[in-house]
Amino acid sequence: MKKLTLLIMTCLVMGQVQAEDGSRLWLRYQSVDKAKVNGPACIAADELRKYFRGDEVTLAIDPTIEAEAFKIEGTTISAKDETGLLYGAYTLLREPATQGYQKPYFKYRILNHWDNLDGTIERGYAGRSIFWDLDGDQPKAIDAALVRAYARANASIGINGTVLNNVNASPRILSPLYINKVKEIAAILRPYGIKVYLSVNFASPMALGGLKTADPLNAKVKTWWKAKAKEIYREIPDFGGFLVKANSEGQPGPGDYHRTHAQGANMLADAVAPYGGIIMWRSFVYGANHKGEDRVKQAVSEFINDDGLFRSNVILQSKNGPLDFQPREPYAPIFDNMHKTPQMAELQITQEYLGQSRHLVYLAPMWREFFGYVAPERLVGIAGVANIGLDKNWCGHHFSQANWYAFGRLAWNPALRSEQIADEWLSATFDIDDSHRTPLLSMMLRSREACVDYMMPLGLHHIFKFDHHYGPEPDGYIAHYPLEWCPVYYHQADSAGIGFDRSHTGTDATSQYREPYCSLYDDLTTCPERYLLWFHHVPWTYRTNSGRTLIDELTYRYGRGVKEVESFIDIWHNSKPTIDEQRWQEVDERLQHQLDNAREWQKTCLDYFGSFARK
Ligand code: GCW
User: Fold this and answer.
1) Sorting pLDDT into bands at 50, 70 and 90, what band is 17?
2) 8-state DSSP, 346
3) Which of 79, 371, 389, 504 is the most buried (most CB within 10 A)?
4) Torsion (CA) 263, 264, 265, 268 in degrees, nearest 10
5) What percentage of the chain exceeds 90 in pLDDT?
6) Residue 319 CB–ligand 1 contact under 6 Å
7) Of the residues 47, 324, 453, 501, which is catalytic?
8) 3-state helix/strand/coil string of 6-34
9) How far does residue 284's CA lie from ligand 1's centre (Å)?
10) Is the CB–ligand 1 distance for residue 450 below 6 Å?
11) pTM assigned to the model
C-alpha cells in the first residue's frame, strides 16, 4: 500500500515536471491555482487565476484608459478592454511589484514572417512554417494549439500584429481558399490583441484576377483590389492591411508601368482605407533604375520625390541600415530624408547575417544603437523579421528566443536598456540565481560586438558567402552577377588599402545624412572607427585610434572576437550545474560551432586581406 502511494505520488510529480526543451519560452510559470480573480471572464483572468502567486486580483474595465494601456493599483488592473487587461496581467506575472500606468510606445508592433505557402521560410533557421504547409496542392490544416501558443507568447511581450507570409509573396495568399485560412488564424490571434496582415504580390490582379495589367492607374486594377479588400474584410473585419515589396529583387511593382511608388501604394491604400487598413510599403529597393549608383544610396534616390505624396494610411517601412541587416551598419539615411511620410523601421530578428540560429548573438544592443540615431518618436512602429519555426524551441537556438523577446519589449518601450531586457529574459527562461545570472548577462551583452569583431570589424560589410549569408567569402566575385552581390565590391581591398569610399571623394553617400553625421562620417579623421571602412578607403599603413596600423587593428579585432567566444564557452561551462541538461547541451554544441566559425572567419579574412596589406 505504502509502495503504491509512493508510486502514484512520484508519477504525479513527474507528470508536473515538464521537459526543458525550450518550448515554453520565457513563459515557464508554475501553476499555483490559488488567486481569486474578480472581474470579467477573459484570458487575463485565466492566466492570473492559474499563475498569480498573490491571493486576489481584480480586473476592471475602464473606458477612460487609452487602448492597449493599463493601470495597476494595488492588485487591481484597469484597462479599456481585454487586450489592455492581458498586457497588465502579463506585466504583473513578470514583475509582481509593478504599479502605475503603462502604455505601449509604438502603435504598430509587428512581426514579419517570411513564410512561404509551401512551408519553407526564407531566411528561417528554426524549421518550417508554423502557419503554412501543403497537403498535396491544398493548404494544410492550421495547428490551432500551436498558433494559440504563439499568440500567447506575443501577447506576453505586447506584440499586436503579424504578417503571415513572405514579402516575396505568392499571389495565392489572396485566393478565397487562403483567405479562409487567414480568417482561422485571425480568430485564434484576436483574443490576444493581435491583428493579421498579409504580404501581397503587386501583380495579383494578373495572376489571380486574369487581368492583363497590374498598372495602379488602370480602372480595372483598382476595382479588382477594392473588391479583394472587401472580400477580406467581410471575413476578417479587423484585418490589419498589406505589406508590399515592390520593384525589388525581381518583384513586380508600379515601376513596371512607369508609375511611382506613391501611385502604387496609394491605389492599395484606397482599397483598404474604408475599413481602417494600412499599407506598409517597403523601401528596400535597389538595382533596376539605379545602375551604377552606390547601393546604399538607392532608397533615398528612389523615394525622395514621393515624400508628401502618399496617402495617410501608407507607412514607409525601411530596414535599420541602408544595405541589408549586416552585423553593423550605420543607420539608413532614408529616415533623415522623408519628412512627410509616416515611417516604420524593419529590424531583423532572424540573424540572417549574424550567425543565423547557430550563433549566440543578442540583438537588443544593435537595435538600441539604431534608436540612438533614429529617435523612436520619428517612427510609428517597428517590424521584426521573425525567427520562429516549427523547431521544438521555436527559434533554433535557445538564446535566439531572447531576440524575439527583446524585439517585443523594445516595441513596447524603446527606452528599456538591453541589460534589463536580457535580465528579465534570463530570469524567466532559466532557474538561475543572481551569481550565475551575472556572467550569462555579460555574455549576452557582449555577444553582438563579438560577432562584429569576428565577422566584419571596422565597418566591413557583406563579405559573406554567396546567397546563404553565413560563412566568409571576402574574395567572392562572379563576373556575370550584379556587382552589388559581390563581396569584393564592398571591401574594395587593393594594395593601397581597403574600404568603400562613400565620402565626397567617392560615392558621396555621406551627403544623404543629416548633420552632424554628414560631416562626421565624411571626414576620415572624425568618422567613428566602427564605420571606418563603410565610408572610407583607408591605406593599410593608416594609424587607428589605438596606434596600430590598419592591418594590425583588423588582426587585433578578429582575434578579440574569437577570444570573446572562447570566454562565452567558459561562462557556459561554469553555469553547467545550474542549467537543465538538455538546454545546456544544445547551447554548448552551438557555442563550440560558433567558435569554429569565428576562427574560420578570422583565418579566411586575415589571410585574404593580409595578401594585399603585407605585399
Ligand atoms: O535580406 C535580404 C534577404 C532576402 C530578402 C530580402 C528582403 C525576403 O537575403 O532573402 O527577401 O533581403 O528583405 O526583401
Assistant:
1) low
2) E
3) 79
4) 110
5) 93
6) no
7) 324
8) HHHHHHHHHHHCCCCCCCCCCCCCCCCCC
9) 9
10) no
11) 0.96
